[in-house]
Every structure is written in C-alpha cells, then in structure tokens.
TrEMBL record:
InterPro entries: AB_hydrolase_fold (IPR029058). Keywords: Hydrolase. This is Alpha/beta hydrolase family protein. GO terms for molecular function: hydrolase activity. It comes from the Bacteria.
Length: 250
C-alpha cells in the first residue's frame, strides 16, 4: 500500500462522536469525542480552546489535528468542546462568554463527563485562554495533570500557581520563543513557584503555532503517553481521508 503524507486535512481512522456536555448551571455545550478505531484509548486529552472573542473554538487548528490524528497515531482519546457562547462547525454552545469566570463550570462538566464515560488517564490540555482555564480550574482529583500551550498567565494569578504547587500534579508548559504574550524566559520565572512545572521552549514558534502542529502534537504525546515513540509518523500506510476544512465562526 502506498504511504500517504499526513497533511493539514488528513483524517486518520478513528471513532468520532458528537457529544453534549451539561454544566452545573444548566447549559448544553457542543463537543466531540474522538477514540481509536478498534481499541481502547490509553489516555485522554480534554482540550480547552483559545479565546473565543479572537476566534478560538474546538476546531482551532491544533485541536482539530489532534482529534484527526492522535487516536490512530498514539491511542489517545481526544475530547474537545466549545465553551459557553462559542460556535464552530459543530454548533454553538449555550450561554455567553464570561471572560474565564463561569467557564470554570464548563471545565468541570467536561471532566465529569469523561469520568462517567470511564475514559482513562485524564489530562487537560489548555491553549492560550484555555491554558489559563487549566491553571485555574484543572485541579480536579480525576485529572492526572495539565499541558499548557502558549500560556499567557493573564486571568490566572500567583494564587492559582501556588495552589497547583501544593496540589503536586504535573504541569507542563510548551512555550513559543516568539510568543507576544509570554516567552520562555519569563515563563520559567513565573512558573518557578511550581516545583513540578516543566517548561519547554520552542525556537522560532509563535503564539498560534502556525506551521508547528507536528511539533506540538509530538510534545503532548511525549508527556501523556511516554511509551509512544516520538516524533510521530509523518505518513500513513492505511486507509485515511483528506478533507478541505473551512473554519466556521458562526
């Protein structure tokens, strides 16, 4: 069989199911669960997207590619969803954007849903605004740890980092060298209050990780599924699809 390069629109085999999360304050959040096609997952990513007022959603490029690739390449489950008031091609979640306040209930709803489903080894992955949500609201007993992508540390504060330090669970930050919000040197200083925090700088990368999705997915997999060899394959020898995806901002 001819090997197919894995490109931006490549969708590898998996079971992808629309889901609805219910929050404590009665909202319905639109989401999707992606699972390996023919075997159970070994770990789970709960993905918290970037700022919705600046285009962030469950279809933001890193998370879309994670859902399309990681169930097949790394045996991971990928749970992504739109926080309150956020729209994507999958639909609009109930409610209105609350600047990271009531979004804490959205994070709780996603973790609770994953627990009820029996998904293994829950890791929160937060990108930008989602990284702040992870730091503020990710300290839930069922959560194994968190991976932060381009963490701005804007709505999360020293008290949140102090609480994470006391909690003791793993905290990993993947920080672009050219980020216009928080760069590696400052990140190492600010996360220094968390003894278990690990900061990895990515030379030449920017806040949105344009052209660096492969590197980010490798980094996530090396943390949550260290037995999986990285870098991940850049081509696929089996059945796959190729789609043209247009971001829907609803």
């Amino acid at each position: 069989m001819t090997s197919t390069p894995i490109r931006s629109g490549t969708v590898l085999p998996g079971r992808r199911t629309p889901i609805t999360l219910r929050t404590e304050d009665g909202l319905a959040l639109v989401g999707e669960l992606a699972l390996p096609a023919d075997r159970p997952p070994q770990a789970t990513l709960i993905c918290l997207h970037p700022l919705p007022t600046h285009g962030g959603m469950m279809d933001s490029q890193l998370y879309r590619k994670a859902a399309w690739r990681l169930p097949a390449l790394a045996d991971l489950a990928v749970l992504r969803f739109n926080t309150r008031g956020t729209a994507s091609a999958a639909g609009r979640s109930d409610g209105v954007f609350d600047h990271g306040g009531l979004e804490g209930l959205d994070v709780a709803a996603a973790v609770a849903w994953a627990v009820r489903r029996g998904l293994p080894e829950l890791w929160i992955v937060g990108w930008s605004f989602g990284a702040d949500l992870a730091v503020r609201y990710g300290r839930v007993p069922a959560v194994r740890g968190a991976v932060l992508l381009s963490p701005p540390l804007r709505s999360s504060g020293p008290e949140d980092l102090d609480a994470w330090a006391r909690w003791g669970r793993p905290l990993h930050a993947l920080v672009p060298e050219l980020d216009d919000r928080l760069r590696p040197a400052e990140a190492r200083e600010r996360f220094g209050v968390v003894p278990q925090a690990e900061i990895v700088g990515y030379p030449g990368a920017g806040h949105l990780w344009v052209g660096r999705a492969d590197d980010v997915l490798d980094g996530i997999v090396s943390i949550v599924a260290p037995a999986v060899p990285t870098p991940l394959p850049r081509s696929w020898d089996g059945r796959c699809e190729s789609v043209h995806f247009s971001v829907h901002r609803g």
